[in-house]
Automatic annotation (TrEMBL), chains A, B, C, D, E:
SUPFAM superfamilies: CorA soluble domain-like (SSF143865), Magnesium transport protein CorA, transmembrane region (SSF144083). One of its GO terms (cellular component) is plasma membrane. Belongs to the CorA metal ion transporter (MIT) (TC 1.A.35) family. It is a multi-pass membrane protein. It is found in: Cell membrane; Membrane. It comes from Horticoccus luteus. NCBIfam families: corA. The lineage of its organism: Bacteria, Pseudomonadati, Verrucomicrobiota, Opitutia, Opitutales. Keywords: Cell membrane, Ion transport, Magnesium, Membrane, Transmembrane, Transmembrane helix, Transport. The chain crosses the membrane at residues 265-285, 297-317. It catalyses: Mg(2+)(in) = Mg(2+)(out). This is Magnesium transport protein CorA. One of its GO terms (molecular function) is magnesium ion transmembrane transporter activity.
Length: 323, 323, 323, 323, 323
């Protein structure tokens, strides 16, 4: 699906142009053009990216194939940017969506395989009230990047709540196997998130330092603002990852703590009951001549002996704090 | 709440001016102006930051929203600085408070959401006896930064005493669950502290190297002094964090040490009592023909056998150092 | 085996030339020459590398001896590149194959000890339809490097499936020894893979930045494309390595979890059966006067006592969650 | 206590001058002056550092307050250096002593709170036979730094011997608690040592690269020599720290090894004695009709059964290597 | 022992000159001179290094005292290089030998305390057939460095075989104490090796980049070749160290695996034999009235009860995979 927007002096001057009209607008330096390709057919890609804009075949290839690492590339006449939006839904849980941009002097072309909320919001806004944003492709690109980065926040919050659930369960008692699976899963999500946040931060940092002539000096503070948000997200992700690994270490050693409690109880109970067991066994022997068995107070003696030994054991066990 | 201070030649020339007066002082190059916004209303923010000073909307936005990472940003006419003060109270324990500053050629604007002790001290000092500090906004800014960094010391001491308590309890015996919670909490505090100390150190380092034209060369040693304090705090925080992780490692392995003591005792006791148990059981059998039972010294033989075997066991146990 | 290809204006103009013909083509600036040495004899090496091309003896030595680290070296008149192709076969599993290249203004010389699939594919393509690729040695070199890097993908997939098998077995129960061997083996493979990916990435990065005059500016995006693929592979390898180490940590602590289950059961069973054992032993004593034995409901009393004590134990055990 | 030395052409020309004389010598470019302040009174600090030399108030403050991090600061007219000497005594064990230096064109001022052996040695040498050392403050400063760094050697040796004692005790059996305390203590000492060695190395490196105009090119190899010693000490400290952490890891896992020995013995002993216990218990039952009890060779049968089962158990135990 | 070699146009023109002759050759720019000092007397050091060559006293001191860290130092007229040869012998095992070099425009002076194989080989070669090597001190130095680095290979192989033996023993069963000692010893060897390889690599890298005017551009590829070898050795050493630490981790957790096997067996055996023990004890009680004892099929009932309970236990044990 291809949607196009033509702006003149910050006002929407046209929408969804035909190919020929696109070519004309592209050639006109006074107009700002945004073309959004949402899951386009190979035909559409060929017509727009190759035909109208004549982008480098490698950049087009990067659009068409999935790219797991964000990047920025300077092709003289335009910047090519690979970035990733994120989403957290009930069904698919954490998911990343690649958004590619071609950023020229007076146009912005965006490319994505699925419907991306940030782009949808942006299209709505441009339709209703473009305003100052539509005055240059650097403003358009910034607005889109800002929307994408703003969507990281709630995803991070979802991951934090998963992390907190894991921390809680780790301190409580839980069946091992599922827990480990879940922990590995959340770790994987954090890992993927950091894999895309870090290079995006570096990439926006480059733009914010004014390294590209596509972005006017007046826009630099806005790119710095996006970089700040990414820096904060990165810092947060590092911190969460550390907490996760700590929870993991505690979990790994949990078994040892529980085993210790069991061993202490076992040791205490064995020690305390040994006198009764030994004496009971010993005087159950059937020797013909066992003087104690004939003693008048033999049974009392057995009780006294047993209780004394048991008390000594209890005393010892208490001292060792095994009970 | 907005408070303003006008200094002329290092002397307090006016306080808490009206908006119009502020505009006039702002335009007068000969006067030094400090405006402090403590938890201002949106109205006040609009009037002062947008109206009087015309700061960049992104910097104003950074003031209004919480920023977890300190930073410095150069907007040609002024520096915008996000910094964090810390406090350690009985009730809230460790807390950070954002303090933002706009540092122009002849003015300083500070912004904070809560009452910050360092700012309060500074306001008192300026009211009573401004002196040399009031001769330039770089001196004002340095004094405030110095007060903020000086307040890190006692907080670090509080955290160290929490750390030492944890180390002590870790070497003693404690119930697991609360201890782990506390350890995670203190680790979180150290982590947050380092998250703000590190970038503040880098930020002050930049100023101390004379990268900003807002700070006169004569002030550089004073900024280096603040940087030294932050470097020291950072070094200390790193060291405490290492100690904490070491304590954690010891704690995690504590259960294994205790379990070992239990196992050694259990093993020793089992070994030592086995002869009595086996012999007691064996000669408790009811076979019609068991010659030993009829022996004249059968019972003595049982005792001798039991004691001999027990002594052998004790000897073995001693050699293995299990008791 | 030596194969040579002469291209004129992107068309194959000759194949497998004699030495003398090679010398002539080499001297002719208008022709592009590719010479591939597959496991050449020392004689052939001497004739071609020393005789025809007069390469530096150290570069020739680097060809002849195995080099475990990829590198790039600039000898004024030509680039010398050591790179590694990878293969994953049923028999030898993961294997690396060194491919060395001499990249001059109008020639490419490749050297390898074994048949390398990427080179074979390249030779076929050059024979059938050289096209634009044959217009310069920088295109030839890029195509070969691209083919080599493309072959890393399936090998990475094989390693990932080995990794996933290990993760699965780690969560299930397996005999220790073989598992550890396998884990060490896969770790070794990942380690070797990263040892060659990292320096190749740095090496291609250098070429992609235009540091060598052998590569025309128009080719730089193509080298950046290869670098992107290597960056992606490196990122993936790092991630897999982390997962492997995590699986390893879980595996190491698995025994403790299982031991804990055993200990809990042992403790529970010991506690629950102790009353029966103690009472059974105690009233098996043969003292002449044991009043309980003569009680009318003595046996009932024994049962009651035993069941009561057992229930207390079961209650305690349930509370401790040992069962 | 203040001591001063005036050198003229490498010869001691005067000692312990009055304040007025100090001022005159300070103004005379032809004389070299060394003033050493050992635990001076506030009065003395004021007179000398503020009055005679007019050092920067922040540098004076750095002298007066303890500074845990070494540093170098360039105040145009002089270098200000914070460095740390170390000592290892029977009573206080490892201790660091701050030594501060002001290094001008023709003077050196040293400041320290306690008597520092290196300074004492230096004073003696200057009194007896100053020689070439007294020809410039860069030589004086180098000699003092060299003496300070030379004193690190024996302290490092003491720490190594403590480390070796810990390694030895870790491999032997020791009571837990004291050992952990000692290990934490030695780790703390190494940590403090590295905290001061690292920045001193960086600091001397800067001087050795000729970054300060206070140090003549001819002196650079001498500063490189000090840097080499610090690099060596740093390398050694890193290595010792790694050994300590390894010893710690072994110690933490020691309990598991010992517990394993106990468990193996317990398991073996339980298995081997079970037949006797079971048979002994079984044929101790008092059923009216138990055929085996009336068998002619019933008791022999019990023995045979018991021995057979025990042998089977021993065989199994041997195979499992539990004994 | 001092040996000297004079070369003229790559031919050996003289050997073992007198001091006076050395002075003359040293002054003659057309001749290349190599002086090798093997464990020289203090007298010889004084005469040659101070007298004939007038090297810097600090460089001479560095020769005379052991230097554990390789380094390179540029004294205008000559390079001073500290490097380390290695050896692995049956008796001393792994040993390092310091080799120092002074590398001037037309001379090379080497200094070592013990007979170093690389130097011996070099002396032989120079005596028999100097050839192109003798045409410049940069060739002489390169040849010596190359020989020294070539000798690292076999030492690395020895260490690898020690490592593999450790890995094998770690997977098998071994007595703890000696194993730990050996592991610590091998780790120490790897650590020492890396301590000298890393700085040597950096040092040769500097030379290979052409930073010294003592080395002609034509020699740079040769120094790069040495650097490649050191890079490879470093990579290998890092990899071996990782393997060693992994083996160590496995070893540390081995006890837990074995203990687990013991505990599983103990738990299984206890559970399976409990019915017999309980029933045997219970019906061994001597109550006057125990109905079961008088039952006609009482004993059969006891057997049935016991076998049923035992089968239930076996079933449970199998399900839990404890046997
Ligand atoms: Mg893509
Ligand atoms: Mg990928
Ligand atoms: Mg998910
Ligand atoms: Mg912002
Ligand atoms: Mg945030
Ligand atoms: Mg771990
Ligand atoms: Mg804020
Ligand atoms: Mg921020
Ligand atoms: Mg707190
Ligand atoms: Mg200071
Ligand atoms: Mg301080
Ligand atoms: Mg400190
Ligand atoms: Mg650890
Ligand atoms: Mg453990
Ligand atoms: Mg090779
Ligand atoms: Mg393999
Ligand atoms: Mg691509
Ligand atoms: Mg990529
Ligand atoms: Mg562990
Ligand atoms: Mg101080
Ligand atoms: Mg101490
Ligand atoms: Mg030296
Ligand atoms: Mg030394
Ligand atoms: Mg050393
Ligand atoms: Mg030496
Ligand atoms: Mg050795
Ligand atoms: Mg070699
Ligand atoms: Mg080579
Ligand atoms: Mg190599
Ligand atoms: Mg290798
Ligand atoms: Mg570990």
């Amino acid at each position: 699906m291809i949607q196009s927007f033509v702006f003149s002096d910050g006002k929407l001057a046209g929408r969804d142009l035909e190919i020929e009209a696109l070519r004309i607008v592209r050639a006109d330096k006074g107009l700002v053009l945004w073309v959004d390709l949402e899951n386009p057919t190979d035909e559409e890609i060929k017509t727009i990216l190759e035909g109208v804009f004549q982008f480098h075949p490698l950049a087009i290839e990067d659009c068409m194939t999935p790219s797991s690492l964000p990047k920025i590339e300077d092709y003289e006449d335009y910047l090519f940017v690979v970035t990733h939006a994120v989403e957290f839904t009930r069904t698919t849980k954490f998911a990343t969506m690649e958004v590619d941009m071609f950023h020229g002097k007076d146009y912005l072309v965006t490319f994505h395989r699925t419907a991306v909320p940030s782009v949808t919001i942006m299209r709505d806004r441009m339709t209703k009230n473009a305003g100052v944003i539509a005055r240059g492709p650097d403003r358009l690109a910034h607005t889109l990047l800002d929307l994408i980065v703003d969507h990281y926040g709630p995803v991070m919050d979802e991951l934090r709540s998963e992390l907190e659930e894991i921390e809680e369960r780790m301190l409580a008692r839980t069946p091992e196997k599922e827990f480990v699976n879940e922990l590995l899963h959340v770790r994987g999500d954090f890992s993927r998130l950091r894999t895309i946040i870090r290079p995006q931060r570096d990439m926006i940092e480059k733009l914010a330092r004014g390294e590209s002539k596509m972005i006017r000096p007046i826009m630099l503070p806005y790119y710095r603002d996006v970089r700040d948000n990414l820096a904060r997200l990165d810092e947060t992700a590092i911190n969460y990852h550390e907490r996760l690994m700590l929870a993991f270490d505690i979990f790994l050693n949990k078994a040892a703590f529980e085993a210790n409690e069991g061993i202490k109880f076992l040791t205490a109970v064995t020690a305390v009951t040994l006198p009764a067991v030994i004496i009971g066994g010993w005087y159950g022997m059937n020797f013909a001549h066992m003087p104690e068995l004939q003693w008048r107070h033999g049974y009392l003696y057995a009780w006294t002996l047993m209780l004394t030994m048991t008390l000594v054991m209890i005393f010892y066990i208490k001292k060792k704090k095994w009970f």
